[in-house]
Amino acid sequence: MRTERNLTRLDRVFARLDREPERPAHIDxxxxxxxxxxxxxxxxxxxxxxxxxxxxxxxxVRLDWQVMFFRPYQQWSGIHWFVDYYVVLGQRGPTAxxxxxxxxxxxxxxxxxRPMLTLGASLLLLNITVGAAKLGMGRLGPHYxxxxxxxxxxxxxxxxxxxxxxxxxxxxxxxxYLASTPRARRWLSAASAVTSLGVGMSTVYLGxxxxxxxxxxxAAGLLILLALPWCEPFIARAETWLFDLRDRWRARRGGxxxxxxxxxxxxxxxxxxxxxxxxxxxxxxxxxxxxxSPRAPIHLAPGPHTARxxxxxxxxxxxxxxxxxxxxxRGGAAQPARPLTGG
Length: 343
Hints:
The chain is 52% helix and 0% strand. It is mostly helical. Helix 2 runs antiparallel to helix 10 (211-227). The longest helix is centred in the middle third of the chain and has 25 residues, at 182-206. The model has no long low-confidence stretch (mean pLDDT 79).
């Protein structure tokens, strides 16, 4: 009796991928809707409020110092080894490699460069915005603080906002942004939010960032994700340009020259030919100079020329055909055969 093997979830996933060799048609590019504009405005206001609260050394700075003196890495030292590994999920190099590998496979599978271009655009915005804020505010971290209770701003530091937190929000949030179904987008959004929250709290636990650094890092990463629909037209143009460049390179490599478009020539109106008058003298024709160079004279070989039928047949040198002593030339008189003499 023959039994069929039950397909697992992984088998069904690969079977579905085998049926999708082209770009899925149901993927919608996110647009800058009114709801997204409201979220972007609220997040920007939260970002500016955190910066202002740190600049004026408000209660948020006092909370930063209280958490630093609490020293979470000493209070819960048993999880220190786990936090050391978990915080890697916010580092730029490892996370970018992992996410780029997944999105690169999706780009190859769906025959589109949008996932990779979107990741590149988001990381470019992250480097510009967060890097400029770090260098502009120059805040020192908890391990390098100089005056207790101060905001440590403008002292040449580079930890405000938290780069680990912002990178975790953008890198893992881009998976939710590029999800193909609403259900996958919801699940990936929740997973990326939990991951970025854990990365931010890990930096506070290790004492490498203030609590306000983490809050500003969350806001900075969320602003980039919310602003990505504004970059979609540029991403589409870049994808079209890259595909055109690839086609031209393939044509040049294959040796095929593109056929130029036919030149349209405007028709010329011809005037009707009028008969010359009877009394008018005929126009004299000018001598036409020949543009061709005179040919060299052909010299024939000296001696009398005989017809083909008068020539004596000659056996070519190296011919496999044996000589016939009784063979007579064409058109000639018969000649007596030569006597064969033995050697």
